[in-house]
Amino acid sequence: MLQLRGSLVRTSMDSENRMSVRRCLIPLALALLVARCSDNIGPPAAPAALTPVPHVLRWAGGTPPSFTAIGALPGRGGQGRFLSAPGGLSLNQYVATFWAVRGEARSVQINYKSSTGDTSSQFLRLTTVDPAFVPGRGELAPGDSVLITVTIDTSSVKVSLEPTGLLFGDPAQLQISYGGADGDLNGDGVVDSTDAQIESQLLGLWYREGTDSAWAKIAAVQSLSDKSFMSALPHFSEYEVSFSEYGVSW
Amino acid sequence: MHTSSRVVDKARELAAAGRHLEVVKYLGGRAGSELAESPSLALLYGTAQARLGRHAEGLRWLDVALDQARKLDEQAVEGHALNARGAVALVSGRIDEAADYFTQALMVASRDGDDATVGRCSNNLGIISNLRGRHAEAIGSWNIAVAAFDRAGWQQGVAECHHNLGITYREQGEFDRALAEADEAVATAEASGDRTLSALTLRGRAEIRVARGEPELARRDLDRVREIRSQDPNPVGEAEDLRVAASVLAAEGQTAAAVGALREVIGRAESHGRPQLQAEASRDLGALLRRTGRNAEARRLRGRRRRSSLNWGPKAKSARWPVRAGTTISRASCAGRWRRSTWRSS
After folding, report:
1. Residues of A with CB below 8 A from B333's CB?
2. How far apart are the C-alpha atoms of B233 and B224, rounded to whole Å?
3. Helix axes B255-272, B235-251, angle to 10 degrees
4. Cβ contact, residue pair A238, B309, below 8 Å
5. What's the pLDDT at B342?
6. How far apart are CA B203 and CA B222, in angstroms?
7. How far apart are CA A178 and CA A180, in angstroms?
8. Which spans in A103-201 are helix H?
């Protein structure tokens, strides 16, 4: 049996961003997680026992990685270098911002420094073309823009996207890589067949709206060669699914 | 025992025709002990209850069926009951739990050589793959399911698979292929005599018609659905029908009527305890309100949705991802739904 658990850490934010979040509702968090794997043989005893208990991937080496950003606004870290949160005080997160413009392809790419020192490895790429509605502002006209903030947790492979409630006409494209875990997906210090099994069968892209919300797996296409997931985001929050239209076999 | 066998046959006949309310009435009129002692009857009764949206009662009897089937070593019923248990989880939005059950059911059915249940599980696992954005995997599962259903001679299953394939192709913007699958689904469902399934497949085709910009043809399909409902009432199904009808109204530019219809869907979904339908209709309504410049109303609706979603708890939360069309596989399956739900003409 493989039972993976991990504490899920809400990204802390500096005071300026915290105020922003309060104005912009609840932050959306996306995470690369490994779902619990159970060895139950019989039927589940109760649905509650099957609520996903995810395990967030950790960065390799146990030390916070460094990041660089392409396409982000120059931060207070200076020169467009993606060093730290505005104010430069946070040690446990990195923040990048960029203006998404309705009708224009805009993107931010964040690379991490791998264990070999390579800084060209892509961690995340977010591309927007059609931001359509901003909470508190309403519908965007073509050419109007909205500031998008990407916050990265440096202890685990986890990001937050804001403003929550932002709606896209054509979905934003998010690609997020788990190569920074260096293959050790269960964090036991060894890269072995268990990690391969996790990668092919258990790994997924998950999200939640806040610490009081459940984690939910989201639709994403995995690329084993790139070690990444690609997902289309119609908006940054409040995702629901309907199963009602499918032909379910009873 | 002989009486029970006749009762099972009669109930199966009703269920095969999609007359679930009649199954409940027929079996509900019998002694409780008769149901509790027969895994087949408990399975038929629990499934009918669940398909009518009475999940708690359905689950109670499906568990009885499962326990009895294991005690009596009736593997066909055990596999079928496990699948039905998973189907309840699936329509309730608990996809991980559903996948567990379908996998267990598939193992039991494969051991037992039960093609019908192999088909059921494969079809349902295909749905889950599709919900997870694994479209190729989903199509593979549905093809396996069609083959199994063919071997079992279970035409309803074949129709369900074609219907689901139609959804996938619609999600990917391949409307011609989607329509071809939907046509096949409608024809097969009608040939099977299962009226509930006919309504589902017609409604599915109507959604494709809307996506193709053919609201008049969509309306014709929905009229046929309405005719079926008039003979075989299905409150949950009717709420779903109304949601699609609202999209037709919106496509026709009848915004006020569409808004009214969606508000009614929300109310019905709430009373039937269908959070996914409620959420979907709320989202559609919000998009329509915004499209027509009624942003304040949309924001109020959004606030209500948020409060409502918090009350659903983790079970519903586990399924909050729109899985609909994208132009490519990598765009997951969100875009088409989003386009549809915002009723954009472009």
Report:
1. 219, 232
2. 13
3. 160
4. yes
5. 26
6. 6
7. 5
8. 193-197
Residue B209: phi, psi to the nearest 5?
-60, -40
Cα distances (Å, whole numbers) of residue A6 to A12, A26, A183, B329 = 18, 22, 17, 31
What are the φ/ψ torsions at residue A234 (nearest 5 degrees)? -75, -20
Using CB atoms, which residue from A218, A245, A250 is nearest to B204?
A: A245
* Predicted local distance difference test score (pLDDT) of residue A168: 84
Q: What is the ipTM of this complex?
A: 0.78
Closest-CA residue of chain B to A240: B320
Contact B344, A243 (CB under 8 A): no
Q: Which residue has the tokens 């991802």?
A: B321
Distance (Å, whole) CA A129 – CA A102: 6
Chain A residues with CB under 8 Å of B272 CB are none
Q: How far is CA A1 from the centre of its chain?
A: 28
Residue to substitute from B24, B66, B103, B321, interface A, most A β-carbons within 10 A: B321
* Residue A143, number of CB atoms within 10 A of its CB: 9
Q: CB-CB: which of A139, A165, A234 is closest to B334?
A: A234
Does the pLDDT at position A153 exceed 90?
no
- List Cα–Cα distances, B156 to A248, B189, B208, in angstroms: 11, 6, 20
Inter-chain CB proximity A221 and B133 less than 8 Å? yes
A78 pLDDT exceeds 80? no
At residue B275, the pLDDT reads 61
Contact status, residue B31 vs residue B207, Cβ threshold 8 Å: no
Q: How confident is the model at residue A40 (pLDDT cuts 50, 70, 90)?
A: very low
B17: amino acid identity, one letter = A
Distance CA A129, CA A101 (A): 7
Q: How confident is the model at residue B299 (pLDDT cuts 50, 70, 90)?
A: low
Q: Between these two residues, B134 and B28, which has the higher pLDDT value?
A: B28
- Whether A210 and A197 have beta carbons less than 8 Å apart is answered as no
- Asked if the model's pLDDT at residue A206 lies above 90, the reply is no
Q: What residue type is B39 in one-letter code?
A: P
Contact residues on chain B for A44, CB-CB shorter than 8 A: 97, 100-101
- The more confident residue out of A198 and B306 is A198
Nearest to A219 among B51, B276, B334 (CB): B334
Put simply, the answer to whether B83 touches A230 (Cβ < 8 Å) is: no
Q: What are the CA-CA distances from residue B119 to residues A42, A198, B150, B154 (Å)? A: 21, 28, 9, 9
**Closest chain A residue to B146, measured at CA:** A249
Estimate to the nearest angstrom the gap between the alpha carbon of B168 and the chain centroid. Answer: 14
- Residue A164 clears pLDDT 80, i.e. is over it: no
Q: Which residues of A touch B97 (CB under 8 A)?
A: 44, 47, 50
Partner-chain contact A47 B94, CB within 8 Å: yes
Does the pLDDT at position B80 exceed 50?
A: yes
Nearest CA in chain B to A223: B330
Instruction: Give the residue from B138, B126, B184 showing the smallest Cα distance to B329.
Output: B138
Tally A–B CB contacts below 8 A. Answer: 196
pLDDT above 70 covers a percentage of chain B that reads 83
